[in-house]
Amino acid sequence: MAQPESLAELLNGRRAAVDASLPAVGFAAGWLAFGQSIWAGAIVAVLTAIGLSVWRLRKGDKPRAVLIGLFVVCIAALIALYTGNANDFFLLQLLSNGASVLAWVISIVIRWPLLGIVVGTVLGQRTRWRRDPVLLKAYSRGSWVWVAQYVIRVAVFLPLYQAGLTAALAGARVALSGPLVAACLAVSWWVIRRNLPADHPGLRHPVVDEPVQKAAS
């Protein structure tokens, strides 16, 4: 089998982990530095997200993806300000991970694994990968690794959230972003590679049997 890019390279996993971690660190730092002020934490988090957005745009990232990341941080800050509970800055993260567990499991069960959809979109294949039974199987098995990633996050975030440990939530956000994302990408890539035969051309080249054209009568 050809040696294509890894999933980390295709999906920019390191960049996503940094973008997810820094605003949370900013929130916790502002919250602690200003006497557990939610306003201070929210301002630092949003300013951090704005700084990241400007940097990403200058590096040529797509504006839509950058603005979505900024929007999520702003919503998280507004939730914490509205409830008056610093822990609620992380509520959106907790809920999104819980929803992700459900979404990824359903996608595998209905044979539309989200890992295949994401990678196929990045590679410009649309749904062509799904017509390759080998790739479909590989993406389905690799998607279970992503399910495990979200389950781990929920299992860690939920007790910390219920205990009101804001600083610990920020630390968990960092630990479960970079290291966990890197592990998830590496393991899911290993699972995919293990399920592709040696003669398969790789993710960029789904093996699809084209319909035979009937001869004109």
Automatic annotation (TrEMBL):
Pfam families: DUF3159 (PF11361). The chain crosses the membrane at residues 31-53, 65-82, 102-123, 144-164, 170-192. Coiled coil: none annotated. Keywords: Membrane, Transmembrane, Transmembrane helix. It comes from the Bacteria. InterPro entries: UCP010219. This is DUF3159 domain-containing protein.
